[in-house]
Amino acid sequence: MTDVQLGMPELPAPDYPAEVRTRLEEDAREVIARYPDSRSALLPLLHLVQSEEGHVTRTGMRFCAEMLGLTTAEVTAVATFYTMYRRKPSGDYQVGVCTNTLCAVMGGDAIFEELQSHLGVGNGETTEDGKVTLEHIECNAACDYAPVVMVNWEFFDNQTVESAKALVDELRAGRPVEPTRGAPLCTYKETARILAGFPDARPGAVEAGGSAGPASLVGLRLAKGEVAPGRVVSPRSADAPQDEAPPTHPSSHDAPQRTSASDPHHPAGPVAEEGE
Description:
Layout: H1 18-32, H2 42-53, H3 58-68, H4 72-79, E1 93-98, H5 101-119, E2 125-126, E3 132-137, E4 149-151, E5 154-156, H6 161-173, H7 188-195, H8 218-223
Parallel strand pairs: 1-3
Antiparallel strand pairs: 1-4, 2-3, 4-5
Helix pairs in contact: 1-2, 2-3, 2-7, 3-4, 5-6
């Protein structure tokens, strides 16, 4: 249920401190200059203000509106539409467990349930130390590595309940962890600044970005005529008769189904004649 607040209307959002405002304005002008229409810069500007406070505050939305000549209502509509923009304080590390179909059946549901218990938080909640925000998310576009966990949008593939618990324990302890592929892990604020379009200044981070993993590239390699990898699923028994004609309908899904046209005893639609 949505909380209903009664009483005096909310006062206008406060501004940033002068030194913060000056720094953000300089960054914002650099972002806006990339676009022929200034309002197109709204998405990266929301990432920019998120990199300042870890979530998009009313102050951040006021700043975006003023820089782009928009109303705060227009900015709020965008900030509340996209789930990558946080509306409340969150952790240094956003731990997202994919619970979409394939990841779920491969163990994602069990991982998410166990992490809630292990961390003592629910979906979208943050641990008391402010380190980890846990959430279930839809497809991570990494089904060939299911089940997948993402930390600040970096991949941790082929997870298990135990490996996921060890991962969040390392994050909370401040120990370095290595994503399965992609760039080294950084904090959520650092990630937000990169998403705003600013270079990742960490030594070696860009070179480590990499590309799709081997499992994702199998189809591309086959299309290029490269040697196919070994079969994962064994062919049917070698002693099966080779001259036996294949069944007309190898699957029940392909079999003809009775319809009103093929089964006159069970017609579809009204039985009575029109106008009766």
